[in-house]
DNA sequence: ATGCCTATCGAGGATAGA
């Protein structure tokens, strides 16, 4: 089974690139993030022509996650139990969750496509929201992991180590590298999840994101913030994994590259 | 190292991303 995860930064704007990439890489299961489209606006027919079933969870303008599969797509779950929201409070004092998680069972694996909150700055309410979201995700994954094989893929918006950012000194005091964010990842791994680190196609660092500006991709000044966290049984079946930096090149790319994982199953 | 890009909504400029 070939599994992939990709923050496409708008599925509408990226549709030609996405379809081209699907036809070439031919993954069996794909986790998409930042689709930036409502569930009913997701290009189901277009990916269907390539043989994929699709499940989308969307807010419209922001966020949005989806799953594509040609290995079955059952028990689709938009969001997870206890997922915190952000913004205006409803009558019972709760904020509506954003479209940041979707799960489904594909080919015998429970697959989650995740888009963690950015956090903005450490003194922002968005940062507290980010940490609360990770804590709730951890709790929600406990019963999921007990049930069988699982992968939680996506844009975690956290660089696990200083080696995962091109210049750690520039990031001191910024989000994506703070100890509480890294602890949140460690707590997920403590549940029994393994960080499936992909092979970079170029250079020593498996970066998955490069800013659009100032020739960052060209200079390979990137970050590894897209992650594949696999349960022990799935991690043991990983044959290979790589960052497809070719997909970051050319006209109209996403600012993230896909991660492709080949499993012995 | 922020908003020098990019995308969205909507018709200009605000909001968001990491």
From TrEMBL:
Q: Where is this site: Important for catalytic activity?
A: 226
One of the protein's GO biological processes: DNA repair
List the SUPFAM superfamilies hit by this protein, alphabetically: DNase I-like
Region described as Disordered: 245-265
What residues sit in the active site?
Answer: 115, 155 (proton donor/acceptor), 256 (proton acceptor)
Asked if the keyword Magnesium belongs to this entry, the reply reads yes
Q: Which InterPro entries match?
A: AP_endonuc_1, AP_endonuclease_F1_BS, Endo/exonu/phosph_ase_sf, Endo/exonuclease/phosphatase, ExoIII-like
* Coiled-coil parts of chain: none
The cofactor remark states: Probably binds two magnesium or manganese ions per subunit.
Looking up CDD domains in the UniProt record yields: ExoIII-like_AP-endo
Record key words, sorted? Hydrolase, Magnesium, Manganese, Metal-binding
Which residue numbers delimit the Endonuclease/exonuclease/phosphatase domain?
A: 4-256
**Residues where Mg(2+) binds:** 7, 34, 155, 157, 255-256
What GO terms are given for molecular function? DNA binding; double-stranded DNA 3'-5' DNA exonuclease activity; endonuclease activity; metal ion binding
Annotated site, Transition state stabilizer, chain positions? 157
The biased composition feature labelled Basic and acidic residues covers: 245-254
Q: Site described as Interaction with DNA substrate, positions?
A: 256
Q: Required co-factor?
A: Mg(2+); Mn(2+)
- Pfam families listed in its UniProt record: Exo_endo_phos
Concerning PANTHER family, the annotation shows: EXODEOXYRIBONUCLEASE III
NCBIfam families assigned: exoDNase_III, xth
Similarity comment: Belongs to the DNA repair enzymes AP/ExoA family.
Q: This protein is called what?
A: Exodeoxyribonuclease-3
Which species does this protein come from? Nonomuraea fuscirosea
């Amino acid at each position: 089974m070939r599994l992939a995860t990709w923050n496409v930064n708008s599925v509408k704007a990226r549709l030609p690139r996405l379809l081209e990439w699907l036809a070439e890489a031919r993954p069996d299961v794909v986790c998409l993030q930042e689709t930036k489209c409502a569930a009913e606006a997701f290009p189901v027919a277009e990916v269907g022509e390539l043989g994929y079933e699709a499940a989308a969870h969307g807010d419209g303008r922001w966020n949005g996650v989806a799953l594509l599969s040609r290995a079955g797509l059952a028990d689709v779950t938009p969001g997870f139990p206890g997922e915190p929201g952000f913004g205006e409070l409803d009558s019972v004092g709760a904020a509506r969750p954003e479209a940041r998680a979707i799960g489904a069972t594909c080919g015998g694996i429970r697959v989650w496509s995740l888009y963690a909150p950015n956090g903005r700055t450490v003194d922002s309410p968005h940062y507290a929201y980010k940490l609360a979201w990770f804590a709730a995700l951890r709790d929600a994954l406990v019963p999921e992991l007990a049930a069988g094989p699982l992968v939680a893929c996506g844009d975690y918006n956290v660089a696990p180590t200083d080696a995962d950012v091109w210049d750690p000194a520039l990031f001191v005091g910024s989000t994506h590298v703070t100890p509480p964010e890294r602890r949140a990842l460690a707590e997920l791994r403590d549940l029994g999840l393994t960080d499936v680190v992909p092979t970079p196609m170029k250079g020593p660092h498996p970066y998955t994101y490069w800013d659009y500006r100032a020739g960052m991709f060209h200079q390979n000044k990137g970050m590894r913030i897209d992650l594949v966290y696999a349960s022990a049984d799935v991690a043991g079946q990983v044959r290979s994994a790589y960052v497809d930096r070719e997909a970051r090149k050319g006209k109209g790319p996403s600012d993230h590259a896909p991660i492709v994982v080949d499993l012995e199953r």
